[in-house]
Amino acid sequence: MTHIHNERLNAYIDQQLSEQEEIEIETHLYQCDTCSDQYLLLLEAEDIGASVSDQFTDDVIAKINRQLVQTNYISSQTNHRKQTIKHFWLAAGLTIVFTLTGLFQGMINMTTEQDFQERGSITAHLLDKSNDFFNHIKGGRHE
Ligand SMILES: [Zn+2]
Fold it and tell me: Long-range contacts for 92-99 (Cβ within 8 Å, ≥24 apart)?
């Protein structure tokens, strides 16, 4: 089956075809999903096109410009990522220096201590909770 060309569909939408051609196209549209979908798309585009204002065109151009700016932004971000990797290696180098001087060891001790304190408070909190739970059961028995 040969599909209807877009130009012919547009001509059909604009009613520029002879009655015979219109019938041919309509017959094909009834039988062919691809062409009827395409016909609906063109019809929609035609509707938009008819109601397009200068403002709309300006909006579209503004949108395209924004997308171009975004694309530039993304590529600059990629550069930034490369720099971050550089910083990472710099930081890794510094870590080795800190470890050698024992400074890093001191920092590890500090964080471990903090962890213990946090864990301790969580345990205390859980104990409080279970106390509440037992008190609740006891209270329930009293009543
Ligand atoms: Zn078709």
Answer: none
pLDDT in tens, 40-98: 888 888 766 656 566 666 776 677 677 766 666 666 666 666 666 666 666 666 666 65
Q: How far apart are CA 111 and CA 101, in angstroms?
A: 18
Distance from Cα 25 to the centre of ligand 1, integer Å = 9
87 CA distance to ligand 1 middle (Å)? 59
Q: In the chain, pLDDT over 70 holds for what percent of residues?
A: 44
CA 64 to centroid of ligand 1, rounded, Å = 33
Q: Which amino acid is at 42?
A: L
Contact 25, 9 (CB under 8 A): yes
Identify the residue with better confidence: 50 or 33. 33
Q: How far is the CA of 37 from the centre of ligand 1 (A)?
A: 9
Average pLDDT over residues 111-123: 61
Q: What is the pTM of this model?
A: 0.35
Beta-carbon count within 10 A of 138 CB: 9
Please identify every residue whose CB atom is under 5 Å from ligand 1, which is an ion. 3, 32, 34-35
Provide, for the chain, the percentages of residues in helix, strand and coil under a 3-state DSSP scheme, each rounded to the nearest 5. 90, 0, 10
